[in-house]
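Hey, can you fold this one?
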Amino acid sequence: MAGLTLTAISLALAAGGTATQVYGQVKAGQAQREAGKNAQKASESQAQLADFNASVAELQAKDAIERGAESESRFRTTIRSTIGAQRAGFAAQNVDVGFGSPVDVQADSAFLGELDAYKIRNNAAREAWGYNVQAQDLHKRAEIARKEGVYLEAAGRQNQSAANLAAAGSLIGGAGSLLQMKYGFDKASKLG
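Sure. Predicted structure:
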């Protein structure tokens, strides 16, 4: 009778240990799956932020072009005013503004003004190009973050599957140990 009680206690303890191990592995798998989902959500948040920042950079590029066009227009108006003032100055001195030096002075002012106007336009285009490059970079970062999130979620699922397989292996191994213990104890008690 004492042998039977010892056998039952040993079997119960072994079964309890196996059950605890299997439960822990299943819970660990669930935690890994949840961690994968949370990582995907975090990656999506990063992607959304990168997309937002890219949109801001695109707006800044558009604004740079618009500001450049406005500055160029204002500068051209200033040059026309300067040329007009030159003509008025020459005319006030009774100099014919259509011949000789007055024409050269006006042509030089117009030429230099055009160079500066093109420089204003070019600077605005460069600024816009910088913002557009930044926007493309941010869009790529968003795309990478989304892919990373998908991979992390998939890894969480795979880790859960691995944990479930480990739990199944522990359950099978535990059952085998229990059977060996039961039949091993039974054989020992029958021999004795």
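The radius of gyration is 41 Å. Let me know if you want another pass with a different chain boundary.
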